[in-house]
Design brief:
Length: about 230
């Protein structure tokens, strides 16, 4: 029951965020603030939930290689997506949250095995905090880029479904996979997310929110760190 509730909550954040972004009530300044907020939360996710646990099982050279591979993979995929979708920056955010979400939700599924309610709530809250504003900003950008509301909502709903399935796979199928493969997955994701922060998240946030971006990033970092520390 706890697994189902957690997976639903985390995935629902993407759908709710997309609906919010498509509602037309997001000003460019608010959108930039939300994207920056999610970027700050993702910094904590990268360091505390991906790199640090991965380093416990991977030597520094292998850890660095996996992180670099993730960054290269995101850059290649983002370039290909940009050529296909034109100037729709929301597509980059969708790709970013997918690269982050797949291994993160696999790890979430594994973390739910035998975890207490407090730890699960903290982890789910941290993921929710980054997913909601990022989906809102991404969906809004995709709408401005010319995609129909229906297609945008389908894209984000499909992503939510994929990430929910990843969490269930992590919980039921990866119980005995071992810490080293999971650590490699986490490190790969860390590289992809770091690249996305530099090329998609922070530039878009600053474009819309300018000087308040720094405050929003810091606020997102603090909130995510508090949730992580509670767990």
């Amino acid at each position: 029951m706890l697994v189902a509730i957690t997976v639903t909550l985390v995935s629902l954040a993407l759908i709710l965020g997309a609906v919010w972004g498509l509602s037309g009530k997001l000003t460019p300044r608010t959108e930039g603030f939300l994207v920056a907020l999610s970027g700050g939360a993702l910094i904590v996710s990268v360091t505390e939930e991906l790199i640090r646990p991965a380093h416990a099982n991977l030597s520094l050279p292998w850890l660095s290689l996996a992180i670099a591979a993730g960054a290269v993979a995101f850059t290649v995929a983002d370039t290909a997506l940009e050529k296909k979708m034109g100037d729709s920056k929301g597509g980059g955010l969708l790709l970013a949250i997918t690269f982050d979400g797949v291994p993160e939700n696999l790890a979430l599924g594994v973390a739910l095995i035998g975890a207490d309610a407090k730890a699960v709530a903290a982890l789910a809250g941290s993921i929710f905090l980054s997913n909601l504003p990022e989906a809102a900003g991404g969906a809004n950008q995709m709408k401005k880029g010319g995609l129909s509301r229906r297609r945008v909502l389908l894209l984000w709903s499909g992503t939510a479904l994929v990430l929910a399935l990843c969490a269930l796979i992590g919980n039921f199928a990866l119980r005995d996979i071992g810490e080293v493969p999971l650590s490699a997955i986490r490190a790969f994701a860390a590289g992809a997310v770091t690249a996305s922060l530099a090329t998609e998240v922070f530039p878009q946030a600053y474009q819309h929110d300018h000087k308040e971006t720094g405050f929003a990033v810091t606020l997102g970092l603090i909130l995510a760190f508090v949730l992580s520390d509670l767990g």
